[in-house]
Every structure is written in structure tokens, then in C-alpha cells.
Amino acid sequence: MSTVTSSLNRWQKKELCSFFNNANLSLLFKASVHGFNATTFHEKCNTQGPTVIVAYNKSGRVFGAFTSKSYAQTGQNVVDDKAFLFSFNDKEMKEDPLRVVSGNPQYAFTDNGPNFDSLVFLYNNTANAYSNPGTYQFDPQKIHGNDLQLTECEVYRVEDFEGLMEKPWRNFRPYYIKPSSSVTHVPFILCDTMGLEDGVNTGLDVDDFATILKGHIQDKYQFNPLMPIQPDSPHFHKSPGLKDKIHCVVFVIDISRVKLLSDKTIEKFVVFRKKANQLSIPQLVLLTKVDEACPLVAEDLKNVYQSHYINKMMQEISSQLGVSLSVVVPVKNYYQELEIDSQTDILLLNAVVQMLRAADGYFDDFYNPEERSE
Q1: How far apart are CA 73 and CA 336, in angstroms?
Q2: Please, which residues have CB within 8 angstroms of residue 203's CB and are 6 or more apart in sequence?
Q3: pTM for the complete prediction?
Q4: C-alpha angle 330-28-331 in degrees, rounded to nearest 5
Q5: Which end of the chain has fewer CB atoms at under 10 Å, N or C?
Q6: Cα–Cα dist 98/87, whole Å
Q7: pLDDT, tens digit (0-9, with 9 covering 90-100), for 266-321
Q8: Is residue 349 within 8 Å of residue 278, measured between CB atoms?
Q9: Residue ranges of the TLDc domain (predicted)?
Q10: Residue 236 DSSP symbol
Q11: Cβ-contact 210, 201 below 8 angstroms
Q12: Each residue's pLDDT tens digit, 314-364
């Protein structure tokens, strides 16, 4: 099944988030995928807490409605003094976003569908909206440009992280880091492995993981989830020294996937951590793509340790994996930049420093002069 993705571009998302004190948005429903009808809308959106409907039309308008209450299909009018309609024009970015509150919060919306009285979405289970200013007073031209035929309709859960805090808080491959032409490589190696997968007999095998930690697997070994490496394999290092062993394990997790980790995936993490703990190998967790998770961080990476949402995700993954919050390190990926960025580098280098400190702790516990001299 293909991944359901948001139709919001970066500018649109920033405009939308500005209504909610820069909250995080989690996509629940996409009409072009799930259908332009109220039944699937409720299947995806009921009991989700605060949500925002985002509709698109050919006129370039992005418009919709927010409620701080949950949909429950009672058919009753819902009291919500935080509900509002909104609109902005994707073709006129200099125009300020429009926000319209209800003239009577006692009748904010009807929870039997995306029905805000003055503006109804998925009207008659079609790709259309219905507009009749009343409870919400607005100029139809400014809200939807008098174009009620929808090209898309999405619903997002609004996860408010309250802005900024007042105070900060596959193949196995070794990679040698070469900082300059005058230096062969720095005195540490980063080793990459197959990732963890959710299904049965997929992803890195726990026996292969243990074999890597002990230094038995050599460069370019092709992992087979169905069959861990055998001692007679040409890629099996029979007598590894301390320099061949792993001195720090780093789990890399996309921050947008934290809330989507299945119980089976978390169980795998627990098993892998247990193996590493048995060998007294320290572990870190890298949370990647923090700029994509929080608009405030995307605007300025210096905000990463002041973002309530990033802090919340760090605490959540810390709890899920059973690790200390101090070993969860946020970073931003390089993915489309043509030049280096100092703020991105600071986060990445901080992660490297944490790895080296953890590895030093390993040597402090298991220092062997004979092995270390190899």
C-alpha cells in the first residue's frame, strides 16, 4: 500500500500552523485516497481531539475549519469557542490568512460530519463544499473564491506543542572519515547495517547484530534476514581484536515515525538493546529530520532544544525504548542543500561527540592494554 502524503507545501503548512501557535499536524484523512464521503471521514477522524479540515480548489484557495473538540457522530450541535474557519490564497502569498470565528459558539459545528453550518465539506458525499454564511459571517469570495468544487480535502490532528520553552533542554559498511587531504582519516569508524523492519523474517537479524558487536562481520557482507552469518562464511572474522568490535551502538529513528512505531518494532529494539547491554556496549538514539517535525526548528535550528514538540518526542522515544533522555540526540539531515550549513553541522558534530564520549566509557570499563595496542 502506498504512503498517504500531505498535499500541503512548506509555505502552506507554515501558514496553517500559524493559526495554532505553530502546532504539529498529523494527517488522518485524505479524500482522494479514502473517498469523498462522511463514512470514511468518521472512520478516520472520530475521537481524535482537535482537528483541522483543509480543502483545496482550482482557484488556488486553501480553506477549511478547525475545532478543538472531537467528532463523535452524535448528530448534536457542539459548543466550541475555539472553532474557526480560515482561508489563504496560494497564488497571492502577500495576502494575510483569513480567520473567521463563530458568531455563536453554542453552534460551532455539527459532529455528524464536517459540517460547520455556514460551510459544509464533502457535501452530499461528493467532492464539493456547501457555503451559506450565517453562524460564521464571511465574504464567500475571500473564503473560497466562489469555487466550491474540491480538488482535495484533508483532515489533520492538531498536536499543539505550545511554541518554545523558556529554557533549552543493509550491507554492513564501515566508513572512514577523511577530514582533509593531509589527514588519512580520523581515529574512529562509523559502521552502517541493515535497518530494523516490522515484519517477520525482515530486517537485521538479532544474531547478526550480536555478531557485528563482537567484531566478526567484515566489510560488504550482504545480510540475509532468513539466515544469519555462519562461521564458515568468507566474511566471518574468526579472531577479531578490540579494534574490530563495536564500542557504541547508535539507533537512528526518523522523528516523524516515533508515534508510528509498532509493538513488534519496539520489541525488536528491546531485544537488540538487551544484546548490547550484555556486552556492556553503550547506546545512543539519533532522532533525525527534526526540522521537518517542527516549523519553529525549520525556521531556526537554534530552537531545537527550546521546542516543546521536539522535547515531547525525545521523551516519548526515551520511554518507548527504555533509554535515558540524555542519550537521545536530535539532528537535521542534509538532503537537498548544495552548501554546508553551520547550524546543521553543530547538531551533527554534537552527535559525533556524544558517540565518542560513549565509546570512551566503553574503554574505561574494559581497558586492556594488550588489545588496545593492536
Answers
A1: 44
A2: 194, 195, 196, 197, 225, 268
A3: 0.57
A4: 10
A5: N
A6: 5
A7: 888 999 999 999 999 999 999 999 988 888 898 899 999 999 889 999 999 999 99
A8: no
A9: 1-159
A10: B
A11: no
A12: 999 999 999 999 999 999 988 777 788 899 999 999 999 999 999 988 888
Return the number of other C-beta atoms located less than 10 Å from residue 250's C-beta: 19
Neighbours of 153 (CB within 10 A): 25
Instruction: Give the three cell numbers for residue 40.
Output: 470514511
| Residue type at position 64 | G
Q: At what angle do helices 206-213 and 263-278 cross, to 10 degrees?
A: 30
Q: For residue 254, give the C-alpha cell.
A: 526518523
Please give the grid coordinates belonging to residue 145: 473564491
Amino acid at 68: S
How far does Cα 3 stand from its chain's mean position?
Answer: 14
The region that residue 26 occupies, defined by phi over 0 for left and psi between -120 and 50 for alpha, beta otherwise, is beta
In the numeric block, the cell 502577500 is attached to 94
Sequence-ordered list of residues with C-beta below 8 angstroms from that of 138, at least 6 positions apart, any chain: 85, 98, 100, 118
Q: CA–CA separation, 30 vs 288, rounded Å? A: 26
| Contact yes or no for 168/305 (Cβ under 8 A) | yes
